[in-house]
Design brief:
Elements lengths: L6 H4 L37 E5 L4 H12 L3 E6 L3 H13 L4 E5 L5 H15 L4 E4 L15 H22 L8 E5 L12 H21 L5 E7 L6 H5 L20 H12 L1 H4 L6 E4 L8
Parallel strand pairs: 1-2, 1-4, 2-3, 4-5, 5-6, 6-7
Helix pairs in contact: 2-3, 2-8, 4-5, 5-6
Amino acid sequence: MIATLPKSHRQPPPAQEQEPPGSQEQMRPRPIEEDDRYVASGRLKGKVAIVTGGDSGIGRSVAILFAKEGADVCIVYLNEHDDAEKTIRRIQQLGRRAIGLAGDMGDPALCAQVVEQAIDKFGRIDVLVDNAAEQDEVQGVEDLVPEHVEKIFRTNIFSFFYLTKAVLPHLKKGASIINSTSIQAYDPSPHLMDYACTKAAILNFTRSLAKELAEKEIRVNAVAPGPIWTPLIPTSFSGEHMKEFGQKTLLKRPGQPAEIAPCYLFFASDADSSYVTGQVLHANGGQGMFS
C-alpha cells in the first residue's frame, strides 16, 4: 500500500545498472505498480486506450489502472517482451481485453500499424497515452553526438506526432490525449540535456494540440512526473547517481509508478476532467516547486 511504503522504497535505491531498455523484474526494490487500497468505480467502462511504454514503469501502472476502471488496453513497447506479457496478463486477470505490439515508436509506419490493429481488435479508440521515452546521461553539450540526439528525439517527441496523427481520425467527441512530459521540462538537468529538451517540446506540443482539437471537444493534457522508480533509471544513470535519486523532493524519496497513474486516469475520465484541457499535472514530490 502506498500509504505505508516499506523502508526499501523510502530511501535511495541501491546502486544498480541495466542495459537499455531495461527490465522491471530485475529492479531492486521492485517498483510498486498497484495501490492495494484502490477501489474502482467504472470511470472508463467501455472505453479503449492505447498506452505507449506500457510494458513497465508508469505505462504499466497506467494500463493496469485503466483496466481496473473498465477499459480495454493496447500497450506498445520496444522489445521488453517478458515485462509486456506480465502487463497483458494482469489486464486480462482484471477481466479486460489487452493486446501488445512491439517496435520502435519513432517509426511512422509502426504508429500507423498500432492504430490499425487497435481498431481491428477493439473497434474504437477513446484514450491515447503518449508515454514512451528513453534517456541517457551525458556530461554536457560537448558530449552530444548527432546520432544520439536524433534517436532521443525520434522516440520522445517525433513518436508523439506520428501516433497522434494516426489515431486522430478515430477519436470522437469526449476523447482524451495524455502526454508524458517531465519535471525536466521545467527544471532541466545538464546531464539530461537532450532528454530535457524533448520534454519541453512535449509541453508545447500538448498546449498547441489542445488549441487545435478544442472545437472537436477532444481534450489534450499532460503529466509531468518527477523522479519515479522505473526501468528508465537503472538503464540511464550510473550507480553513483542512485545515492541522490529522489532526495531533492520535499518528500525526500523517489515516487512509485502507482502514485503517478491516477493523474492519467483523471485526464482519461470525462466524468472527472471534461472541462480540463491544455493543462499539466505535476506529480513530483514537490521538487523544484519552491526554487
